[in-house]
Amino acid sequence: MKKFKAICESVSYFFIFSFTPIICALIISFIYVCFSKINLNLPQMSTYVMEIIACSLIMIIFYFILKVKRHNFVDSIKLNKITLHSALPFILLGLSVYFIFIILLNCIPFFQGEDTVSNTNDLHKSVNGINVVFLFVAKSILAPIVEEVTFRGLIYSKLKLAFPIWVSSLLVSLTFGVIHFSSSIFTVLSAILLSLIFNYLVDKYNSIVPGILIHSAYNFTVTFIRYNIRYFDFATYEIPIMVVSILTFIFSIICIIFNTKKLSSN
C-alpha cells in the first residue's frame, strides 16, 4: 500500500509540473481575450514572463500540498545547505559540461553535425530589452530550481520508497530526458546523463542544491551562447574554449570526488 501511494504521489507531482504551465498559459490567454473584447489591449506578454509565472505557481502548489500534509517544505524537497567550498566545483562543472558534450558529440559519427555551437539558435533575434532579463531568470534560475525540486526533491524521493534506488534513478532520468527533447536525440541523452549525476549527488549530499547549481550553470552557459552567438566567433576560439573547458571539467570532477569522499568518511 505504501509503495502504491508513493507511486501515485510521484505521478501527481509530475502532472502538476507538466500541466501547470499549460493551464497558466490558457488562463492568461483567456484574460487577454476578455480584455480585447472590451477594446482594452494589454501589452504583449513575453514567453519567458509566462514561464516565470508558471514556475512560481508550481512552487506555490507544491508548498501548499506539503503544508496540507503537515510536512516541512525545505526538508521534504531536500533543500539542505551545502558549504561554499563544496558549491564552487558544482558551478564550474555546470559551466564546462556543455562544451564537453560538444566534444563528445563531434567524436561520435552518429551525432556529428547534429548540435554544435555554430548552429545553435540565435536568441538575439527574438529577445531584446527587459525580456533578456526575463530570459536568464527563467532559464538559468527558476527552471533549474523547479525541475530539481520536482524530479529530485519530490519524485525521486517518493519513487525510492517503491523501487530500488537504481530503478528509481533510471525512471526519473528517462522521464527527465524525454521532457528535454528539442531538436535531436543528443538533448535527450545529455539530459539523462545529467539526471543520473544529479540523482547520485542527492543521495550523497541529501540535498538538491548540488543539482540546482550544476543545472543552473549549465542552462546559463547554453542560454548565454544562444543569445550571443552572433557576436562571438566560436570557430576562431574553438580550441582555447575547449582546452579551458576540459581543464575546468577535470578540476571540478576531482574536487567533487574529493569532497564526496570526505563527506562519506565523516
Shape: globular
Number of strands: 0
Radius of gyration: 20 Å
What gap, in angstroms, lies between the N and C termini? 36 Å
Helical amount among residues, as a percent range? over 70%
Q: Please give the count of helices.
A: 9
What class, by secondary structure content?
mainly alpha
Describe this structure as you would to a colleague:
The structure is a single chain. This protein is mostly helical and 266 residues long. It has one domain (2-265). Helix content is 75%, strand content 0%. It has helices at 2-37, 47-68, 73-76, 84-107, 131-159, 165-179, 185-205, 209-228, 238-265. The mean pLDDT is 87. The chain crosses the membrane at residues 12-33, 45-66, 87-111, 131-149, 161-179, 185-202, 209-227, 239-258. It comes from Ruminococcus bromii. Residues 131-220 form the CAAX prenyl protease 2/Lysostaphin resistance protein A-like domain. Keywords: Hydrolase, Membrane, Protease, Transmembrane, Transmembrane helix. This is CAAX amino terminal protease self-immunity.
